[in-house]
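TL;DR need structure tokens for one chain.
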Amino acid sequence: MCSCFSLKTPVTRNPGGRTGIMGRGALTKLGANMMMDLVLTRWRNMDRSTLQFLAIWDQSHKSWALPGGPVQSEGLLPVVLQMMMGRQLYKKVQEKMEEGTKVFEGYVDDARNTDNSWVEATILTIHLDRTDPLMTNINHMVANSRGSMEVVEWQEVSGKTQLCAHQKDSLRRVAELHNRKF
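>> reply
TL;DR here they are.
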């Protein structure tokens, strides 16, 4: 009797190293789980003194987060954003993606990572002009979110912003793009 075994399928290995947890854990599949975070920015006022970004209150973590989530394929916004924004606003933001700048793409150190499943994120920033018609729609969404389960608000781009580590690093990169201190 042989005590050895063979695997017929290749084992996926976390490129960030071992975590001590096998399987897919809280992620949807083995291997890379693609996520996209969207950093929508604007100037708070006409003198361009303060750069702001759109933040969502993450009820499960009791903290602010960038809008985003899992994506099925590159070039598409996360479906969870459609639920938050509504179909028409989602389509308008989707159309603006070509004007966006990719600030990060790759492996992310995430608490959900396991030895066999991990998060890879694309962070896209889109700067909105105050006169853009899309701003009216987003500001309407922000005003209507107060008192609801999904609170959305404009916050200052700052090193004091409370976000998870990889999102905070992405926000720092966005500040650099706009020549702002972080």
